[in-house]
Design brief:
The protein contains 9 helices and no strands. With 208 residues, the chain is an all-alpha fold. Helix 6 packs antiparallel against helix 8. About 7% of the residues have low confidence.
Amino acid sequence: MASSGRPARALLLALLGLSPVFLAPQKAVPAQAAEDLSRRAAAAPLLATLAALAGGEAAHAQAANVAPSLPTVDVPDRINADPYELIGMDNIDDKKEDYRTFYMKQKYRQDTYQVMKHMKISASLDKGTPNMEKWNTRVKKEMNDWLAIYRRQNLSVGRQSYYSLYSAINTLASHFTSYGPKFPFPNKRRPRFFELCQQVEKYLEKGK
């Protein structure tokens, strides 16, 4: 009976256009294999997260190893000599000589070079330098004179050299205000100060 039933069933399937293969019973997945597949599926998100974190840490470490490019600035050595002697001013109490040395000439380029030269000396004076307090007090007044003249002029305010020197003046003036004129300008602020002075010189050379 069983042997005769199989050809009949095959014939019936052929008439219906079906293949016996599609109706073949599927093999059951072993329990251990199913459990392994379930564990892999559950662990997949965790593995993806760990991989992303590892990639982020590697990128961060690589970025940390890249040193930032710092501007190259020539910071002069400290000065121990009398600043008035450095500029050739023999009699510091002579008002005429003081006028020729420190007063504004109403010429932007000339006045800017003048005040910047004296500011750079102030920023380099060492502790115990003769006449440091007197020099810094005079330079502070000179800086105020420069600002009073050129802050009101549209032609100078629009210059890039003006903004750079304005920042340098604020840097040095804030030191005078906080610590007074008899204390040296701190080393940690000197690179930025001389960087600003370097910018002023470059802008002046280009007429800016």
